[in-house]
């Protein structure tokens, strides 16, 4: 058993007969009344996100997990295939368990959290950022830069990302996997 002081991003807990992963949390200590913790929980079975508030000192049941590095191999419809980098054992995960499946490039290493009680995969943690090549981008219009103007670009995985006007086809860009947004152009 853990308490609200042990809450951190990525912690897996049992709550309402389901297993949830804490995405965000905020300790709140109001001037009047007891302290509490506001959390965003993501269900690892359905993928739904819900907001919940725990009072300070509330006991929560955490789930023991092991983290292993897996390499993304390929996708077949909604099924994504991964290989353990140490044992070369392959697993197949559903698209709903992944946070940003459209940004996954073949050969990318991800961290898979596995429930130690049932040996079932709980969640997949992508790298913080990923570098992808732009396969299609409209040409930028000169003089249309009074504000932070952006345009749609398609990357090699098929995802569309809003990028600045100076990005062209063939450029490599760094994308934040948490938000799916453009970070910077990568020079080689």
TrEMBL record:
The keyword DNA-binding does not apply. Its main location: cytoplasm. It is found in: Cytoplasm. Pfam families: EFP, EFP_N, Elong-fact-P_C. Keywords: Cytoplasm, Elongation factor, Protein biosynthesis. Residues 67-122 form the Translation elongation factor P/YeiP central domain. One of its GO terms (molecular function) is translation elongation factor activity. Gene3D superfamilies: 2.30.30.30, Nucleic acid-binding proteins. Pathway: Protein biosynthesis; polypeptide chain elongation. It comes from the Bacteria. The keyword Aminoacyl-tRNA synthetase does not apply. InterPro entries: Elong-fact-P_C, NA-bd_OB-fold, Rib_uL2_dom2, Transl_elong_fac_P/YeiP, Transl_elong_KOW-like, Transl_elong_P/YeiP_cen, Transl_elong_P/YeiP_CS, Transl_elongation_fac_P. Residues 130-185 form the Elongation factor P C-terminal domain. Belongs to the elongation factor P family. HAMAP family: EF_P. Involved in peptide bond synthesis. Stimulates efficient translation and peptide-bond synthesis on native or reconstituted 70S ribosomes in vitro. Probably functions indirectly by altering the affinity of the ribosome for aminoacyl-tRNA, thus increasing their reactivity as acceptors for peptidyl transferase. This is Elongation factor P. The lineage of its organism: Bacteria, Pseudomonadati, Bacteroidota, Flavobacteriia, Flavobacteriales.
């Amino acid at each position: 058993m853990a308490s609200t002081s042990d809450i951190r991003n990525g912690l897996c807990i049992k709550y309402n007969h389901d297993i949830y992963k804490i995405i965000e949390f905020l300790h709140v200590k109001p001037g009047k009344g007891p302290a509490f913790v506001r959390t965003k929980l993501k269900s690892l079975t359905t993928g739904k996100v819900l907001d919940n508030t725990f009072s300070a000192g509330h006991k929560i049941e955490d789930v023991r997990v092991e983290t292993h590095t897996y390499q993304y191999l390929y996708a077949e419809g909604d099924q994504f295939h991964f290989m353990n980098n140490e044992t070369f054992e392959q697993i197949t995960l559903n698209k709903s368990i992944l946070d940003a499946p459209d940004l996954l490039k073949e050969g990318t290493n991800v961290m898979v959290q596995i429930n130690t009680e049932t040996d079932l995969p709980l969640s997949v943690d992508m790298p913080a950022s990923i570098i992808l090549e732009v396969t299609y981008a409209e040409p930028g219009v000169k003089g249309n830069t009074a504000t932070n103007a952006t345009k749609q670009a398609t990357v090699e995985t098929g995802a569309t990302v809003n990028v600045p006007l100076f990005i062209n086809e063939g450029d490599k860009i760094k994308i934040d996997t948490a938000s799916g947004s453009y970070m910077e152009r990568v020079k080689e």
